[in-house]
Amino acid sequence: MSTKVIYFLVDDRPEQAEFRSDFPADDIKDCFRAAAEAGPHDILKLYNTKGNIVNISQKLDENTPDTPYKLEVVASQFTGTLAEQLGFDIQDVENRLETLEKKIVVDSGETPTVVYELKHKVEHFKEKLESVEHLSWMGLFKEVVAESQSRLPFYKQRLRKTEEEQRRVWEKFNKIKNVQLTDDVREYLRKPTFDNWQWEDAEMMVLLQQMYIDLDFTTKFNIEMPVLQNFLFEVFRHYNHVPFHNFKHCFCVSQMMYGMNWLADLCHLVGELEVLIMVTSAICHDLDHPGYNNAYQVNARTELALRYNDISPLENHHCSVAFQILEKPHCNIFKNMGHERYKRVREGMISCILATDMAKHNEILNKFKAVVPEFDYSNKEHLNLLMQICIKVADISNEARPMDVSDPWIDCLLQEFFNQSDVEKLEGLPVAPFMDREKVTKPSSQTGFIRFVLLPLFEALGVLLPKLEEHIIEPVRKALNYYSEMAKAMEEEKRKKSENDKTTRQANGETPKINATNGTPTPASKLNGDTPSAGLSNATDKKVVRTNLTMSKVGGSSKVRGNPK
């Protein structure tokens, strides 16, 4: 086996690592962790010379001493050493606390025994409740009432995360949930260029937690940190194993909403409560998404379609699951709010999540455009429209990111589309052309979607919030140019191939025969009994693009979405 030598810097100190290409990834990470003198629960990230995060694994590209990688500890566990750096002695604090406790006992008298007994009973009762409600997924307790037999087809039974997967992520999250993120990472988290692909599930939960901290929501809305952590983990558990509408998509939408807040100063414009509503809605907006859109739900007459009378079955379901999670006391991040404020939060989240149904796209966009010229931030109707537009922009914002971040998301969405269309063909249900693997192409779907759906939405928001122009809207225009050029290149390649095939047939003495019925030439492939090519004609391409205008959302959060369970 070949040996790799990797050169990198740790705090501007040159280091090098040497390992065989067949070494396990965990051993390689431990090597870098040792070089950085990092703790077992610290989070490391490796950057290339362009400043991009690269994965620490056997596939790491070799480099030279002149082009070293940069290794950073982006989050550190809170330790005694860190306490010293912050200027206080933990032991001294403990001693002072013990002295204070003794003074209270002396001054006030011993605590009555009955108080300790009551406290013990309450703690015991609380443990029993949490064991049943919160830890049943670990297999330690059985539900009192068994779930009814699922009516879903067998191919949708594998969506749920296994207990082992959940346990593994929960254990890692528990180890790193109190790490201190560096200022560089916190600043990077506010940018639309953030790369989600380099972060694991537990790490993304830490980043979501940091959003609430840096927006000061934990203080201003009295959100208890353990409750926030339980909430984020429950949200993670309720996102399924589907190609696109998964927990990573949830994080991307939430991170873009968070970034838009810092770019446009939304807390100042619309208020901190409204930003809390939008960020939390983004986190919850696709909960329990099954990878099959609303059209499938309705056509297949699924349980969700029946429950919600064919009206936005997926979005209604996402919203319902969100509030089922929030109904659990250990997950209710709003439990310390007053009644009126909570009422506003619930109303706002329902409005935002239901707005992600692309069937309502034109209706919402036209209403927003109508009020922009005389927009009034004190007008509740205007404010609700802005919040709906913001979450819609965040939901389909992948094209605002760098190409190496956004392009893989298109493949994920197309895979989800293709999975659904394959099932629809098996079940004899209608198949949308933009989801048919035999008809759709990436550039054709992207150019139509960006030009007629995404860009008009982004530009409408840009009129009201011009600070978004450079960082979000202009990158979308560049993405449109990129996919337009790709579409032209594919058409040119198709044309040349057709001409070459024609030349080859003529050289072989094959001539098209005239169809007796309409006088049109019959292709040689038909004469030879071959299957016609699966490539699209120009007319078909136009039809696909036109269909995408109203239903597809390639490269963003597809809410043509439908996809329930």
UniProtKB/TrEMBL annotation:
- GO MF entry, a single one: 3',5'-cyclic-GMP phosphodiesterase activity
Protein name per the record? Phosphodiesterase
Which residues of this UniProt protein bind Zn(2+) 2? D286
What EC number(s) does its UniProt record assign? 3.1.4.-
One GO term under biological process is: signal transduction
Give me the stretches of Basic and acidic residues compositional bias: 491-504
Keyword Transmembrane listed? The answer is no
- Residues annotated as binding AMP are H245, N246, F247, K248, H249, D286, D395, Q446
Q: Which residues form a coiled coil?
A: 83-110
The gene from which this protein is expressed is LOC110978973
**Which coenzyme or cofactor does it need?**
a divalent metal cation
Q: Write out the catalysed reaction.
A: 3',5'-cyclic GMP + H2O = GMP + H(+)
The record's comment on protein family reads:
Belongs to the cyclic nucleotide phosphodiesterase family. PDE9 subfamily.
Q: Any binding details for the cofactor? A: Binds 2 divalent metal cations per subunit. Site 1 may preferentially bind zinc ions, while site 2 has a preference for magnesium and/or manganese ions.
Q: Which InterPro entries match?
A: HD/PDEase_dom, PDEase, PDEase_catalytic_dom, PDEase_catalytic_dom_sf, PDEase_CS
Report residues binding Zn(2+) 1: H249, H285, D286, D395
